[in-house]
RNA sequence: GGCCCUAUCGUCUAACGGCUAGGACGGAAGCUUUUCAAGCUUCAAACCAGGGUUCGAUUCCCUGUAGGGUCACCA
């Protein structure tokens, strides 16, 4: 059976690069009916923090990457100790007296007795990779009998847990010969290694917090859908071999293949992930959309429920991330004037091709009189409002009629069309705004 | 610098020796009911360089160049 694992170290907030690795390991395991394990690598006691571990668990749960067999290396010291002893007894490792160079250094550590030979392995993605391990020297495998270093702990755990395929970032490729040396010394089988291409910042260096990489939960908080994040991450360094770009988790599982993984690093594009998110927003039902959008509307929002109901489709059409809901509805946002009275200078009501304020004044007077005669039901959709005024607008010039109408309703250079605005505002408020604009002219 | 990995439009990528090098994001233009957004259509945009191998190379090999990773008692 195929067993993969995600082995993050809780020393900081993990970004998309880390979760992309987790996603690939998950997809590969699930596709093959195998197991996907989670192992928290907290052997660095000084830097490991509970809050970071919590964030990892929260992120995996949100993304829907289900794992089994969660474990922490900090709880497995007895196991490591036994293997360290084994190595020392076999004279494959030894206790070494050290000079203390840095704070925290120990006077004694355990070093691996490096046979100093060439080690090669067949990377699933890159093919044969060969290293001369001589230059590694007798590297440290433990700070003490109870404190293994990453290299030892990884090898022991992957063996103990039956990991068959190690999918990890390309930055680990140079650690692999060390791991193989330890495996050979312990008599462990060598798992398959697949070193994934790195995710890059826009300057093409490794993605990192310093280079602006956000923790995955920040994307959630900005209003990205988990489906979009998963979809986009899967497409960085992998493709289904077709031009299909919108893929559900089920489709990803079905199509995923290590053969299709790219060898070179990929830049994470904020633009494209927004586009992907938009595709998923388009697919949501209005009810689902509303439920999700409500999380981004402040509790004490002054927007009346009835209006909100009519604003929802407009929001759905315009946003790429749900965070934009908050912006759009803020007083200065594009839809802000839907629930606060607009104020503007009367010159704004003049359509660019008209020369005289008397033109919009007469149009507004006409519009007001037409609207007065309409029933409330007419405002139930933008279309029905449009029908009552379209003929007039065609006759007098669309811009000349529609621009002042739209501006008097929104008070903004940019806004939805006037019929949609009228629909949202309702009969009474629409007429009142148009009259107010008419009166200042 | 040593070692290792990589190299197609600005970005993500397709091509598994043989077509005008295809798609997507972004960009530009146009259309669509006035503005904005959305949508639709169209356009611009790439095989890192030089040697081989071959009837034929973006594709295979070599060298160079460039970029990246890694050189911890961090993972």
What does this protein structure show overall?
With 441 residues, this protein is of the alpha/beta class. The chain has helices at residues 16-31, 50-63, 77-89, 150-160, 176-186, 216-221, 226-234, 249-255, 270-283, 286-294, 305-318, 323-329, 358-372, 382-396, 398-410, 418-440, and strands at 3-6, 35-40, 68-72, 93-97, 108-112, 118-123, 127-132, 140-144, 147-148, 165-169, 192-196, 199-200, 266-267. The strands form five sheets. It has a four-stranded antiparallel beta sheet. The protein has a three-stranded parallel beta sheet with strand order 1-2-3. It has a two-stranded antiparallel sheet with strand order 6-7. Strand 8 and strand 9 form a beta hairpin. Helix 4 crosses helix 5. The mean pLDDT is 94.
How is this structure best summarized?
The protein is α/β, with parallel strands linked by helices and 441 residues long. Helix content is 45%, strand content 13%.
Describe how the helices and strands are arranged.
Blueprint: E1 3-6, H1 16-31, E2 35-40, H2 50-63, E3 68-72, H3 77-89, E4 93-97, E5 108-112, E6 118-123, E7 127-132, E8 140-144, E9 147-148, H4 150-160, E10 165-169, H5 176-186, E11 192-196, E12 199-200, H6 216-221, H7 226-234, H8 249-255, E13 266-267, H9 270-283, H10 286-294, H11 305-318, H12 323-329, H13 358-372, H14 382-396, H15 398-410, H16 418-440
Parallel strand pairs: 1-2, 2-3, 10-11, 12-13
Antiparallel strand pairs: 4-5, 5-8, 6-7, 8-9
Helix pairs in contact: 1-8, 4-5, 7-9, 10-11, 11-16, 13-15, 13-16, 14-15, 14-16, 15-16
This protein binds one RNA strand of 75 nucleotides through strand 7, strand 8, helix 4, strand 13 and helix 9.
């Amino acid at each position: 059976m195929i067993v993969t694992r995600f082995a993050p170290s809780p020393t900081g907030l993990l970004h998309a690069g880390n979760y992309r690795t987790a996603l690939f390991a998950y997809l590969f395991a699930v596709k093959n009916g195998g197991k996907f394990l989670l192992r928290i690598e907290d052997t660095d006691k000084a830097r490991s923090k509970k809050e970071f571990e919590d964030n990892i668990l929260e992120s995996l749960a949100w993304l829907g990457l289900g794992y089994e067999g969660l474990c922490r290396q900090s709880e497995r010291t007895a196991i490591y100790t036994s293997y360290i002893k084994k190595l020392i007894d076999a004279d494959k490792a030894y206790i070494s007296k050290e000079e203390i160079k840095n704070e925290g250094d120990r006077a004694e550590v355990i070093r691996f007795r490096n046979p100093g030979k060439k080690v090669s392995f067949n990377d699933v993605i890159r093919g044969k990779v060969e290293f001369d391990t001589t230059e590694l020297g007798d590297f440290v495998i433990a700070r003490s009998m109870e404190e293994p270093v990453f290299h030892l702990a990884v090898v022991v755990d992957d063996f103990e847990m039956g990991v068959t395929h190690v999918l990890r970032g390309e930055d680990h490729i140079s650690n692999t010969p060390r791991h193989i040396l330890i495996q050979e010394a312990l008599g462990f089988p060598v798992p398959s290694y697949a070193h994934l291409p790195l995710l890059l910042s826009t300057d093409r260096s490794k993605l990192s917090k310093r280079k602006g990489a956000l923790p995955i939960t920040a994307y959630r908080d900005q209003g990205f859908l988990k489906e979009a994040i998963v979809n986009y991450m899967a497409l960085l360094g992998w493709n289904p071999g077709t031009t299909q770009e919108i893929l559900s988790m089920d489709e990803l599982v079905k199509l995923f293949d290590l053969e299709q993984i790219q060898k070179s690093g990929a830049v994470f594009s904020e633009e494209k992930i927004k586009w992907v998110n938009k595709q998923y927003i388009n697919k949501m039902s209005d009810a689902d959309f509303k439920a999700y959008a409500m999380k981004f509307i402040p509790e004490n929002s002054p927007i009346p429920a009835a209006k909100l109901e009519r604003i929802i489709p407009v929001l759905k059409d315009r946003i790429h991330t749900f965070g934009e809901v908050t912006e759009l509805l803020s007083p200065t946002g594009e839809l802000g004037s839907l629930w606060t009275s607009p104020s503007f200078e009367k010159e704004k009501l003049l359509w660019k091709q008209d020369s005289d304020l008397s033109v919009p004044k007469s149009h507004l007077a006409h519009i007001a009189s037409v609207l007065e005669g309409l029933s409330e039901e007419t405002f139930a959709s933008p279309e029905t409002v449009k029908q009552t005024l379209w003929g007039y607008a065609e006759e007098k010039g669309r811009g000349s009629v529609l621009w002042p109408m739209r501006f008097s309703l929104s008070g903004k250079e940019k806004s939805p069309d006037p019929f949609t605005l009228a629909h949202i505002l309702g009969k009474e408020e629409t007429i009142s705004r148009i009259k107010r604009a008419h009166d200042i002219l």
